[in-house]
Design brief:
By secondary structure, the chain is mostly helical. The protein has four helices and two strands. It is elongated, with a radius of gyration of 26 Å.
């Protein structure tokens, strides 16, 4: 694909002297040939869903981390005198630290993503309210009166 073709794919055709640009959230997904409905959407689930995924990953990471210790129980007694015991203990400690860091990062992401979902949802509601007509009916983004 040439640079010119890529430019037109991203920004649309040049109309006179102006360049028409479409937002990524309203542009067709690459390779689908289809597009969104022309509305910028930032609420309705993606941020909340991402937060839930981070929470699920946090939980499964903690489950795995806490299973490491018991998985090594009895190893020292069964391998007494072998130098591999110290190496295995070092590996155990290293993995526990790594998984703890992943767990903590997922906890942070879960909260941050949930905050974004809340803020974006509140922003969308505030914008929708600002578009209420004199008759009290809401004009949703992309609708015409």
């Amino acid at each position: 694909m040439s640079l010119s073709e890529r430019w037109q794919e991203l920004f649309g055709p040049v109309e006179g002297e102006a360049v028409v640009m479409s937002l990524a959230s309203t542009a067709p997904a690459p390779g689908t040939g289809g597009g969104a409905n022309g509305r910028l959407k930032h609420s309705g689930g993606p941020w909340t869903s991402a937060s839930g995924t981070a929470g699920d990953l946090r939980t499964s990471t903690e489950t795995s981390r806490s299973a490491l210790g018991p998985g090594h129980d009895g190893m020292e007694a069964g391998a007494a005198g072998l130098t591999s015991v110290a190496a295995l203990k070092s590996v155990l400690t290293s993995w526990e630290e790594r998984l703890s860091a992943v767990r903590d990062e997922c906890e942070h992401l879960k909260g941050s993503l949930l905050s974004v979902a809340k803020e974006m949802g509140e922003t969308e509601v505030a914008i929708e309210r600002s578009f209420k007509g004199v008759d009290g009916s809401a004009v949703k983004a992309g609708e015409k009166r």
